[in-house]
Design a protein that fits this description.
Jelly Rolls, 5-stranded antiparallel β-sheet, alpha+beta, 4 helices, single chain, 2 domains, binds 2-acetamido-2-deoxy-beta-D-glucopyranose
Length: 215
């Protein structure tokens, strides 16, 4: 192999690594300044001399979230919104509580892969690969099991048991974002035109109207 080809190979590799998650920080830290009126990719930094331990701290992830909702699960996030010191670091964390048979409905994180650990209970998890295969990869997890959902892919979890379940997950973005498929498609504001969804989902208008009324 010529030196140029090796060089291009290394360059491509380093680019793909640095774009696999949020960009690398250019300083020790950049604590988000909620007061800033500057729009940057991420959040503007407050004066590093004003950094305090609490900027890098969150309390309460031992507390169970309230799962009394129509899906029977709740996410407690620790992203840059809860922990300003995460700004520019490219990581965040969540706790997920599941009622018996509760689900975390199909969704994607546009900016993050997610590595999930089951702390309590039994979870059925899965993700679907991109077109054209749309392969469904699924597994049943028990306490201590770890599973990764690759960035951007539609994934879900279901508590496959009659006890509460708890998981903790790390995400490769300070601000992973969530797109819940049903809400985005049937609950957008304003609505996506019904006839578009009729064709897209090959369903009757009445079914689309019903689904839109649900979200
Ligand atoms: C949990 O949420 C439900 C529905 O919002 C509410 O009625 C209930 O009081 C909440 N329970 C606790 C312990 O906060």
């Amino acid at each position: 192999m010529s030196p140029q080809i090796i060089l291009y190979g290394l360059l491509a590799l380093s680019l793909s690594l640095s774009f696999a998650a949020d960009l690398s920080p250019l300083q020790d830290f950049c604590i988000a300044d909620p007061q800033s009126r500057v729009f940057v990719n991420g959040l503007a930094c407050k004066d590093p001399k004003l950094a305090a331990a609490n900027d890098f701290f969150f309390a309460g992830l031992h507390l169970a979230g309230n799962t009394s909702n129509r899906v029977g699960s709740v996410v407690t996030p620790v992203t840059v919104s809860q922990m300003p010191g995460l700004n520019t670091l490219g990581i965040s964390m969540i706790r997920i509580d599941y009622a018996p048979w509760g689900i975390n409905p199909p969704h994607t994180h546009p900016r993050a892969s997610e590595i999930l650990t089951v702390l309590e209970g039994c979870l059925e998890v899965g993700f679907v690969t991109s077109n054209p295969d749309n392969r469904h990869i699924t597994k049943v997890l028990h306490k201590g099991d770890v599973f990764v959902f690759p960035i951007g892919l539609v994934h879900y979890q279901r508590n496959a048991g009659s006890a509460n379940a708890v998981a903790i997950a790390a995400l490769s973005s300070q601000n992973p974002g969530v797109v819940t498929v049903a809400n985005a498609v049937f609950g957008s504001v304003p609505d996506i035109a019904g006839d578009i969804l009729v064709k897209a989902f090959q369903l009757d208008n009445s079914v689309i109207n019903y689904l839109q009324s649900k979200f």
